[in-house]
Give the backbone structure.
Amino acid sequence: MNKLVLIKNAELFQGEKYLNKKKNYFEGWYFKNVNSQKGISFIPGINISDVGAKAFIQVITNHLSYFVNYNIKEFKFEDKPFCIRIGDNSFSKEHININLEDKSQNLKIYGNIEYSNSKDINTNIFSPNIMGPFSYLPFMECNHAIISMQNTINGRIKINDEVIHFNDNKGYIEKDWGVSFPKSYIWCQGNNFQKTNASLMFSVAEIPLKLFTFKGFICVLLIDNEEFKFTTYNNAKLIECNIKENSFDITLKKDLYILNIKSKCNKGLKLSAPVKGKMKKDIFESISDSLTVTLKKEKEIIFNDTSNMCGLEIVQK
């Protein structure tokens, strides 16, 4: 497929050219689904290295996480419309269908979720996705894309003996692809705000770029249908970044706007992240954290709210 089409439609499978090569590569999608008290996220993907290729599905809930391997031949993809399949599981922007069993982990998950009313971020030729002009660079170690900033979710998932119901709740979809995750980063996402229909995604990482590294960050705050974007490439500034063992406090500034994000962190659950194509780095994520977000225009507070059931990862060197 044409490279520009892939850049513009980041949800599509980017790595077809690597499927028959022993070149370090990974690609994974992230489907986060929460109600007011419970959540479950699915991370389907593939990884390729010098020892071979595999497909996988990672699962994380409030209290448990799982990693299930599949033969790469069980990975299928479609472009029109976008859909990926791993074994008997399928994932798209409109729905996910889960039929996953791993006897070695005493794990059985099945059910389906329907997605509707998807809200995407604003894009243009300069910024085809959240990475802006960096989307066009072919040598980025890790690429990131927001597929759906917010959507309405309905359905049910049964995980062993527990059933999680979704009734007009909110979901979120993103993805990563490349060679390796950053060595250190913070990522958080929330859309269960108490007073406002809002969604937030923020990430800051040490980005290697050929002969040097830099601290890059991306952030989108969607309030109803109004988007506020703070990124390295749109001249926003990271003016405060305080990280402790169980909390962080981050402040961003762009023009007249100042955005503050505070979080108290629960104990994360283990997931696997890629290093040179191999899923061998342990990272820890929670999907039941809280975020308090304040947006000011000069000294006037125009948004202040707290979201529960937030996703959070803090990875330090």
In short: The chain has a mean pLDDT of 95. The longest strand covers residues 278-297. The CA atoms of residues 206 and 212 lie 10 Å apart. Helices lie at 3-8.
